[in-house]
Amino acid sequence: MRTSIRLTLLVLLASLLSGCGYNAIQQKDEQVKAGWSEVVNQYKRRADLIPNLVQTVEGYANQERQVLTDVTNARARVGQVNVNADDAESLKQFQQAQGELSGALSRLLVVTENYPNLKSDQGFRDLQAQLEGTENRITVARGRYIQQVQDYNTYIRSFPQLITAKIFGYAAKPNFTVENEAQIAQPPAVKFGSQPAAPAPAPQPQPQPQQAPAQ
Question: Is the peptide bond between 199 and the residue preceding it cis, with omega within 30 degrees of 0?
Fold first, then answer.
């Protein structure tokens, strides 16, 4: 008898939780976690490419020491950030560090335009292709994560899910901010074609011949 009562109560409790969005909250929360893992994975993939990129550039452009140092230091700062995607301040620091790395990497790639031998190096060209692919994957993963967080936050703020979320401690998650998103949304330029030719100077006006004075 008691077993039947317990089973009935469990069924009723499960029905109530399902009707209040508990199961959907779990699913959306897991989707956000999986999306964040993919974002971190792609950023890590980019960071793993940088030592080889710096080493290759250094072999041809060792005099660009400051630019190489900036990239190395920016990568080190990224590795020092212990990011917690559920904490707004931690996510902000993560975005800032990744933005600084993107900027340093962009400056490095601009410098390489001055070294034709480097641009023709097969190892450098392979790194170029890998980096370009990684930047595209970062953009896709970050965009998907933003949508997942928006979907999750909208859901737990709607009735009656908001009651369930408060009871079980599910709070809204921070997302990429507009300012930092604009900063890191543009991947570093990784095209190493020839620089556009400088525009031809405007023709100078020809001096007019002096006319002889009238007699």
Answer: no
